[in-house]
Write a structure and sequence with these properties.
By secondary structure, this protein is mainly alpha-helical. It has helices spanning 22-54, 56-65, 73-89, 93-117, 122-148, and strands at residues 5-7, 12-15, 18-21. It contains 5 helices and 3 strands; from the N terminus they run βββααααα.
Amino acid sequence: MVRIVAMTHDGSIAFMGLKHRMKTMNAQTLSYAAPLARVLLAAMFIISGLQKITGYAGTQGYMEAMGVAPWLLPLAILVEVGGGIALLLGWQARTAAFLLAGFSIVSGLLFHLVPSFGMEDAMAAQAQVISFMKNVTIAGGMLMVVAFGPGKLSVTRRDAALVPAE
Protein backbone atom coordinates (compact mmCIF):
# COMPACT_ATOMS: atom_id res chain seq x y z
CA MET A 1 0.00 0.00 0.00
CA VAL A 2 1.33 3.46 -0.91
CA ARG A 3 0.75 6.17 1.66
CA ILE A 4 0.96 9.80 0.70
CA VAL A 5 1.96 12.39 3.25
CA ALA A 6 1.86 16.07 2.32
CA MET A 7 2.12 19.40 4.13
CA THR A 8 -0.86 21.62 3.33
CA HIS A 9 -0.81 25.39 2.98
CA ASP A 10 -2.14 25.92 6.53
CA GLY A 11 0.64 23.89 8.21
CA SER A 12 -1.36 20.71 8.72
CA ILE A 13 -0.48 17.24 7.46
CA ALA A 14 -2.69 15.41 4.99
CA PHE A 15 -2.30 11.66 5.56
CA MET A 16 -4.58 9.21 3.78
CA GLY A 17 -7.22 11.95 3.61
CA LEU A 18 -6.99 12.83 7.33
CA LYS A 19 -5.56 16.06 8.69
CA HIS A 20 -3.57 16.30 11.90
CA ARG A 21 -2.58 19.72 13.11
CA MET A 22 1.20 20.15 13.33
CA LYS A 23 0.82 22.44 16.34
CA THR A 24 -0.84 19.71 18.40
CA MET A 25 1.81 17.16 17.51
CA ASN A 26 4.60 19.65 18.11
CA ALA A 27 3.32 20.73 21.51
CA GLN A 28 3.17 17.15 22.77
CA THR A 29 6.42 16.00 21.15
CA LEU A 30 8.58 19.05 21.74
CA SER A 31 7.82 19.33 25.43
CA TYR A 32 9.78 16.08 25.88
CA ALA A 33 12.06 15.96 22.85
CA ALA A 34 14.04 19.16 23.41
CA PRO A 35 15.05 18.46 27.04
CA LEU A 36 15.81 14.82 26.22
CA ALA A 37 17.96 15.89 23.27
CA ARG A 38 19.86 18.30 25.52
CA VAL A 39 20.51 15.54 28.08
CA LEU A 40 21.79 13.16 25.40
CA LEU A 41 23.98 15.77 23.72
CA ALA A 42 25.34 17.16 26.98
CA ALA A 43 26.16 13.77 28.52
CA MET A 44 28.79 13.03 25.91
CA PHE A 45 30.65 16.28 26.53
CA ILE A 46 30.43 16.18 30.32
CA ILE A 47 31.68 12.59 30.47
CA SER A 48 34.45 13.23 27.95
CA GLY A 49 35.61 16.35 29.81
CA LEU A 50 35.66 14.53 33.15
CA GLN A 51 37.67 11.69 31.58
CA LYS A 52 40.20 14.24 30.38
CA ILE A 53 40.58 15.45 33.98
CA THR A 54 41.09 11.95 35.39
CA GLY A 55 43.46 11.01 32.57
CA TYR A 56 45.13 14.41 32.24
CA ALA A 57 48.69 13.24 31.49
CA GLY A 58 47.56 10.64 28.97
CA THR A 59 45.34 13.15 27.20
CA GLN A 60 48.20 15.66 27.04
CA GLY A 61 50.42 12.99 25.51
CA TYR A 62 47.78 12.08 22.95
CA MET A 63 47.31 15.73 22.01
CA GLU A 64 51.06 16.15 21.53
CA ALA A 65 51.23 13.00 19.41
CA MET A 66 48.49 14.48 17.19
CA GLY A 67 50.35 17.78 16.85
CA VAL A 68 48.02 19.76 19.13
CA ALA A 69 49.51 22.02 21.79
CA PRO A 70 48.96 20.38 25.21
CA TRP A 71 48.36 23.76 26.87
CA LEU A 72 44.97 23.71 25.09
CA LEU A 73 43.79 20.85 27.30
CA PRO A 74 42.37 23.05 30.11
CA LEU A 75 40.43 25.00 27.49
CA ALA A 76 39.08 21.77 25.99
CA ILE A 77 38.01 20.60 29.45
CA LEU A 78 36.32 23.93 30.16
CA VAL A 79 34.42 23.85 26.87
CA GLU A 80 33.33 20.23 27.30
CA VAL A 81 32.38 20.28 30.98
CA GLY A 82 31.21 23.89 31.21
CA GLY A 83 29.41 23.86 27.88
CA GLY A 84 27.92 20.45 28.61
CA ILE A 85 26.54 21.54 31.98
CA ALA A 86 25.18 24.79 30.50
CA LEU A 87 23.48 22.81 27.73
CA LEU A 88 22.12 20.25 30.20
CA LEU A 89 20.55 22.98 32.33
CA GLY A 90 19.42 25.05 29.37
CA TRP A 91 21.42 28.04 30.62
CA GLN A 92 22.71 30.09 27.69
CA ALA A 93 21.94 26.96 25.68
CA ARG A 94 22.28 28.59 22.28
CA THR A 95 25.74 29.95 23.10
CA ALA A 96 26.87 26.68 24.68
CA ALA A 97 25.56 24.68 21.72
CA PHE A 98 27.34 26.99 19.26
CA LEU A 99 30.64 26.54 21.11
CA LEU A 100 30.18 22.78 21.35
CA ALA A 101 29.34 22.58 17.63
CA GLY A 102 32.57 24.39 16.79
CA PHE A 103 34.51 22.20 19.22
CA SER A 104 33.05 19.08 17.59
CA ILE A 105 34.09 20.15 14.10
CA VAL A 106 37.60 21.28 15.10
CA SER A 107 38.31 18.20 17.22
CA GLY A 108 36.90 15.96 14.50
CA LEU A 109 39.21 17.52 11.93
CA LEU A 110 42.30 17.37 14.16
CA PHE A 111 41.85 13.95 15.73
CA HIS A 112 39.90 11.98 13.11
CA LEU A 113 39.80 13.32 9.54
CA VAL A 114 43.33 14.67 9.08
CA PRO A 115 45.02 11.59 10.65
CA SER A 116 42.93 9.30 8.42
CA PHE A 117 44.66 10.66 5.32
CA GLY A 118 48.02 9.16 6.27
CA MET A 119 46.81 5.71 7.35
CA GLU A 120 47.87 2.65 5.41
CA ASP A 121 45.26 0.45 7.09
CA ALA A 122 42.07 1.10 5.12
CA MET A 123 39.80 -0.15 7.92
CA ALA A 124 41.45 2.12 10.49
CA ALA A 125 41.15 5.06 8.10
CA GLN A 126 37.48 4.27 7.53
CA ALA A 127 36.89 4.13 11.30
CA GLN A 128 38.46 7.58 11.66
CA VAL A 129 36.27 9.01 8.89
CA ILE A 130 33.21 7.52 10.61
CA SER A 131 34.33 9.15 13.87
CA PHE A 132 34.71 12.46 12.03
CA MET A 133 31.18 12.11 10.62
CA LYS A 134 29.94 11.42 14.16
CA ASN A 135 31.41 14.77 15.18
CA VAL A 136 29.75 16.47 12.20
CA THR A 137 26.42 14.90 13.19
CA ILE A 138 26.79 16.09 16.78
CA ALA A 139 27.53 19.60 15.47
CA GLY A 140 24.30 19.39 13.47
CA GLY A 141 22.36 18.53 16.62
CA MET A 142 23.98 21.44 18.42
CA LEU A 143 23.02 23.80 15.60
CA MET A 144 19.40 22.70 16.06
CA VAL A 145 19.67 23.94 19.66
CA VAL A 146 21.20 27.18 18.35
CA ALA A 147 18.33 27.59 15.90
CA PHE A 148 15.40 26.64 18.15
CA GLY A 149 16.58 27.09 21.74
CA PRO A 150 16.55 24.73 24.70
CA GLY A 151 12.80 24.08 25.01
CA LYS A 152 10.46 24.54 27.96
CA LEU A 153 12.45 22.78 30.68
CA SER A 154 15.41 25.12 30.97
CA VAL A 155 16.73 27.60 33.50
CA THR A 156 16.68 30.39 30.91
CA ARG A 157 13.01 31.31 30.62
CA ARG A 158 13.37 33.98 27.93
CA ASP A 159 15.17 31.43 25.77
CA ALA A 160 12.67 28.66 26.50
CA ALA A 161 10.40 28.77 23.47
CA LEU A 162 11.31 26.55 20.55
CA VAL A 163 11.44 29.30 17.99
CA PRO A 164 14.07 30.28 15.48
CA ALA A 165 16.73 32.66 16.78
CA GLU A 166 16.24 36.27 15.79
